[in-house]
Amino acid sequence: MKFTKMHGIGNDYVYVNCLEETLRQPEKVAVFVSDRHFGIGSDGLILIRPSKVADFEMAMYNADGSRGMMCGNGIRCVGKYVYDHGLTDKTELKIETPAGIKELRLDVSEGKAGRICVNMGQPVLRAKDVPVESEKEQVINEPVTIAGTSYRMTCISMGNPHCVVFVDDVDRFPLEITGPQFEHHACFPARVNTEFVKVLDRNTVQMRVWERGSGETLACGTGACATAVACILNGYTNQEVTVRLRGGDLDIIWDRQTDLVYMTGTATTVYEGEIELPDQLMETGNSNNDR
């Protein structure tokens, strides 16, 4: 299987061009390639496919093999991949995802895509659509008890569920303990991605993230968007927010007039390679078995 290793500010995935390659069991391939000791090493697997309704389709699988609805860092890398590999000459693209069609605008320099702006769509605030179990219509600064500790959470979907929690010290927060407790809490029927956030000023916040199915990652694009929306809803920041993650910064704008969230950041190619997969995970030729 030919692949490309890419990352969006440290959120790394293995990318496969499924216009040329065909995977029979992508969920198992995701587990295989994501292993950082015996595989390639990544936060998951992303397949680039043809689309009947957009320029391309993105299919994303977490490191545990579960299907992801949307990945903000991943979709920027998809935009860079298809442009840099000559699959398109467009600098404005539409990418099909399970969370809807997302629009990308590429900044190109010397024939390569650099910073990429993604229209991430409207944030979903209705509790049952996030989903989060609550008697309230929206969960904004609501209390939750996790393993005996009380927190205040704001829950948002950006095509996948997020729980944003504000803390005093992001760096020392016990993410590896608390993250899984949030992910598997009973109030999140589809599990949840959790962002632990410290507000630095009216335009800047610091964030660490525990992603469902992958654990802590260096960055999460949809999580950065959810964080910006939560900051604005709680009155902590203006509508343009720089989110500082362990892998780098993302610039987020929530346009309140259109209710659209825009995310801008880099996408980086690490290397390209080829790996031998077990026979039961791979077949050659074009088919729709990976759908």
Protein architecture, described:
This protein has 4 helices and 20 strands. It has 291 residues and is of the alpha+beta class. The protein has an 18-stranded mixed β-sheet that branches. It has a two-stranded antiparallel ribbon with strand order 3-20. Mean pLDDT is 95; it is low at 284-291.
Topology:
Layout: E1 2-8, E2 11-17, E3 22-23, H1 26-34, E4 44-49, E5 56-62, E6 67-68, H2 72-84, E7 92-97, E8 100-109, E9 112-121, E10 142-146, E11 149-157, E12 161-166, H3 175-183, E13 193-201, E14 204-211, E15 215-217, H4 221-233, E16 240-245, E17 248-255, E18 260-265, E19 268-274, E20 282-283
Parallel strand pairs: 2-4, 5-7, 12-13, 14-16
Antiparallel strand pairs: 1-2, 1-19, 3-20, 4-5, 5-6, 7-8, 8-9, 9-18, 10-11, 11-12, 13-14, 14-15, 16-17, 17-18
Q: Please, what is the oligomeric state? A: single chain
Helices and strands, in N-to-C order?
EEEHEEEHEEEEEEHEEEHEEEEE
| Helical content class | 10-25%
Average pLDDT metric: 95
Sheet with the most strands?
18 strands, mixed
In total, the number of strands is 20
Strand content: 35-45%
CA(first)-CA(last) distance: 17 Å
- The number of distinct helices, counting runs of at least 4 residues, comes to 4
Name the overall outline.
globular
Contiguous runs where pLDDT drops below 50 for at least 5 residues: 284-291
Structural class: alpha+beta
Radius of gyration: 18 Å
